[in-house]
Amino acid sequence: MSYQVLARKWRPRNFSTLVGQEHVVRALTHALSQQRLHHAYLFTGTRGVGKTTLARILAKSLNCETGITPTPCGRCSACLEIDAGRFVDLLEVDAATNTRVDEMRQLLENAVYAPTRGRFKVYVIDEVHMLSTSAFNAMLKTLEEPPEHVKFILATTDPQKIPVTVLSRCLQFNLKQMPALAISSHLAQILQAEGIPFEASALALLARSAAGSMRDALSLLDQAIAHGAGNVDEAQVRAMLGNVDQDYLFSILEVLREGDASGLMQQASLLAVRSLSFAGALQELAALLTRIQIVQCAPTTLDEDDPDRLRLLALAEQLSPEYVQLAYQIVNVGRAELALAPDEYAGFVMTLLRLHVFRPRSVSDVVAAARANPSAPPRPAVSASLSARERPETDVPRTPPQSAVSHAATDWHALVGELPLSGLARELALNCELRELGEGHCLLRLSNSAAHLQMKPSPEKLQQALSNHFARPIVLKIELGAPSAETPAATAGRQRQERQESAELAIEKDFFVRDAIATLDATIVDSSIKPID
């Protein structure tokens, strides 16, 4: 007998063996138990999460010879033929290759005929979003009022492309991506049943690489078994996937903690010798920093059986939470900039050196600095290897210059009213929040939804108006982001809404209006109510 791939051999045969879709299984089980059967179902989700498998299980539940049941027997001729893919009343159609209206009409013409063997004639249309508009229109009437013996099961990876007229005629179930833990647990069960030795850490790698798809995970598992000559161990799986060994990543952070720049260069050289992907190394390093931050913020979530538990706890204690956040950002930015580097090795090295330059000396230094200045936000201390001149200004306590004015001390609402602005320049000023106003600069924040207000020459006009108002050159800078306080435009809108609501309330309470409504059976036209300014 020829070899059968794991994805087909271990395809779930009933609802109880389906992994990771409990919310869908619960709804379908209750519907089948109570005989509340809809005529059309739509399963949506990414590849490999069980859409077609769920459709076949549902077809078995509808046609099992023991009756309509959420637990098909799996032994009757109907169940066996559906599992084998030869049940005459289960019609599986690939909409990606049958997109035309003529093919859909031919398919639906046979729907009026009673099923040959089963209780229901079940149409499973995979990748239904690939049908043409004419094909969708052709199936609408049948989909809305099909014969009692017909059930439609539609599956798609892109529900946004399905017309709303079709969506409204179906019960829609959204299948989730598989959690990595659920995938690795299922792979472990399969390997135990197959009698294949494995390492749990290797399965975790496969589960992560599958990106939520159980089918992809089983395909990778087949490849790993072949690559490891019948064994699934971490080293072989890492070599197969091109992943960076976690030991390298822990070593990088441990060397970084010690402030050893030459040690960082040695780690980079080791990765280069093994020809590992530097982009993958930075991605894995960001994932490790995420795990460290989670341990720092929620230590109880760390699994007692985690093989990296001790090293994670040590790094979580020795690195400040603020620095972990900074390191995470540096790593992600470094990964994005690899394409701009002279070569990937240079980009990787510069990212490691950036982590080195901005590392904290120790947690005690950070705590001591926070206690010395409790009102200041915590900042990671800079490496002791830097001279005082090279040290960033954030590491040196300083008082703001006397000429600087904080945004809290300046009434931007009043200032905008004094500026001789009009048109788009005035709208720009009204929709900004003042962040900082200094001797020669002004920093404003504008929401992303109003970014179009930056069209020239509005910023130049606003800058000139500010310079004229303060009788000194002002350099205007506008950053995009969510304002932390009300802008003048938001304040005006809120006040306008409050006046409108007050006017509507006054009209509703007016005795003359109430008498007119009661006597003449009149109604108030809301749009006609205007506040008197």
Query: Can you give the mean pLDDT?
Result: 83
Give the strand tally: 9
In whole angstroms, the N-to-C terminal distance is: 88 Å
Strand order of the largest sheet: 2-3-4-1-5
Q: SS-based structural class?
A: alpha/beta
State the helix count. 23
The residue fraction in helices comes out at 40-55%
Rg computed from alpha carbons, rounded to a whole number of angstroms? 33 Å
The main pleated sheet reads as: 5 strands, parallel
The outline comes out as flat
Strand content: 5-15%
> pLDDT under 50 segments (min length 5)?
375-409
Notes on the structure:
- By secondary structure, this protein is an alpha/beta fold.
- It has helices at residues 6-9, 22-33, 51-63, 77-84, 101-109, 133-144, 164-167, 180-194, 200-210, 214-227, 234-241, 246-258, 261-273, 278-297, 309-318, 321-336, 344-357, 363-372, 412-418, 423-430, 458-470, 488-509, 511-520, and strands at 40-44, 90-94, 121-126, 150-156, 171-174, 405-406, 432-437, 441-446, 475-480.
- The strands form two sheets. It has a five-stranded parallel β-sheet, covered by helices on one side. It has a four-stranded mixed β-sheet with strand order 6-7-8-9.
- The N and C termini lie far apart (88 Å).
Helix and strand arrangement:
Elements lengths: L5 H4 L12 H12 L6 E5 L6 H13 L13 H8 L5 E5 L6 H9 L11 E6 L6 H12 L5 E7 L7 H4 L3 E4 L5 H15 L5 H11 L3 H14 L6 H8 L4 H13 L2 H13 L4 H20 L11 H10 L2 H16 L7 H14 L5 H10 L32 E2 L5 H7 L4 H8 L1 E6 L3 E6 L11 H13 L4 E6 L7 H22 L1 H10 L13
Parallel strand pairs: 1-4, 1-5, 2-3, 3-4, 8-9
Antiparallel strand pairs: 6-7, 7-8
Helix pairs in contact: 3-4, 5-6, 8-9, 9-10, 9-11, 12-13, 13-17, 14-15, 14-16, 16-17, 20-21
